[in-house]
Specification:
With 423 residues, the chain is of the alpha/beta class. Helix content is 34%, strand content 19%. Helix 6 packs parallel to helix 7 and helix 10 crosses helix 13 (379-399). The longest helix is centred in the C-terminal third of the chain and has 21 residues, at 379-399.
């Protein structure tokens, strides 16, 4: 399949954005190969993995031949999607199957590292859900092993393949919004984040996201997506981070924070923030890329220029009348005019909201990469930095101090090599 057909099948033909902002797809440019079906193993077929399996099952070049989990209900549900798959309870036995080309890792966060490292050593290509590692050091060693073995390495950063974000980045990188000085990200929900537990002894197994032994909460489960937008937009990584977190609402025995806030500072003074609370969903989730000439909200799929047309005449007249009425009231006034949000309705990035958030194209790209044995440019690097940034933010919260990005864990964006490799 060449790149043109690849994009056509994805319903994105004609978007030059893929050439400008998505160099990871250029690896498939005019690539020809014999049609081949790859065999995949799913390690941890919980709800997230089964979501990915639904896309894979629609790809004629992918076959799910193995499942691995110690929780039978997850296996039973996954077998509905891949009824012919062989079942394992030990991932190491699955990795010994020489017919399996690649694996999908969607287990609790603390188990990613040993599984991925063993998979690379077994010659398997890897798709790992985010965050890829439980610590920055784990993430770095996973990335380094990927470079050493040459095996394909993807992570669950679907925004890299979301047409809204690709179009937004094209506009940012071509200077349409002037100088980007700030990026504000937030992800808010209203719910306890718990899942039903059939028996008390399975609490930590099923609700692993709530316990520090297995997860780092909002920073690794949500921030990982949004912090990647900052490094993607600015094409650099922040140098330091500070933050605060607390359990302020869901005081139910959980160990991870349900209210977090982090500030990431770049070496040139620019700032990126991440905020998340799961006791109010009014503002939902968004990344606001703020430039001197305008603002982009890619999740909403809209952009706003700073200078817009004047308010329509009738509305302006009503506003003038109201202002004169209130100006005549005998209240002490201010000497300044407050700046509030204007009525700029903005423009749509793509004309309408796409039918996918990028996950389907992400999975298709992984299959294509495994078949062609070509690692798309920057995919592994973006996933690595997204994981590292959320983990450093969590560290700043835990240690209540400003954390500087360690030099030993930086990688060279140009050569895509750990710095320790290139001196």
């Amino acid at each position: 399949m060449n790149r043109r057909n690849f994009l056509k099948n994805a319903g994105l033909t004609g978007l030059g954005v893929f050439l400008v902002s998505s160099p990871w797809l250029s690896v498939f440019s005019e690539t020809t190969h014999t049609q081949k079906k790859i065999r995949l193993g799913i390690i941890g077929p919980g709800s997230r993995a089964r979501h990915l399996m639904r896309f894979l099952s629609k790809n004629p070049k992918a076959e799910i031949t193995a499942l691995c989990d110690i929780y039978q209900p997850s296996i039973d549900a996954a077998l509905q999607l891949a009824p012919q798959a062989k079942v394992y309870t030990d991932y190491r036995r699955l990795l010994k199957d020489e017919t399996i080309d690649g694996i999908i890792v969607a287990t609790p966060l603390n188990s990613h590292y040993p599984i991925v490292m063993d998979a690379f050593d077994a010659g398997k290509h890897v798709f790992c859900e985010k965050s890829i590692g439980y610590t920055v050091e784990e993430c770095f060693h996973m990335y380094r092993r990927h470079k050493e073995t040459g095996q394909i390495f993807f992570s669950g950063q679907q925004r890299l393949f979301d047409s809204r974000y690709l179009k937004a980045m094209e506009m940012v990188h071509t200077g349409m919004f002037g100088e980007i000085n700030r990026i504000c990200t937030y992800w808010n929900r209203n719910g306890d984040w718990r899942r039903p537990v059939p028996s008390p002894d399975l609490e930590r197994h099923i609700n692993w996201r709530l316990y520090k032994e297995y997860s780092k909460g909002l920073m690794t489960e949500l921030a990982c997506h949004q912090l990647q937008i900052g490094s993607w937009a600015l094409q650099k990584i922040p140098e330091k981070v500070m933050g605060h977190g607390a359990i302020t609402y869901w005081k139910d025995g959980r160990e991870v924070y349900n209210n977090v806030s982090c500030i990431y500072a770049f070496d040139d003074g620019r700032i990126m923030t991440f905020n998340s609370v799961i006791s109010n969903k009014f503002y939902g989730l968004e990344e606001q890329i703020i430039g001197s000439l305008g603002t982009i909200e890619p999740e909403r799929g809209k952009y706003y220029y700073e200078n817009i047309a004047p308010t329509p005449g009738i509305l302006q007249m009503i506003n003038d009348v109201e202002n004169r009425v209130f100006d005549s009231l005998p209240f002490a006034g201010t000497s300044w005019a407050p700046e509030t949000t204007n009525e700029n309705k903005g423009e749509y990035l793509l004309g309408e909201r796409p039918k996918t958030d990028g996950t389907s194209l992400l999975m298709d790209a992984f299959v294509e990469a495994v078949i062609t044995r070509k690692q798309p440019e920057k995919i592994a690097e973006e996933g690595y930095y997204a994981s590292a940034l959320c983990l450093l933010g969590h560290q700043a919260i835990e240690e209540e101090r400003t954390i500087t990005f360690p030099d030993e864990f930086k990688i060279d964006y140009l050569n895509h090599q750990p710095k320790s490799f290139i001196g």
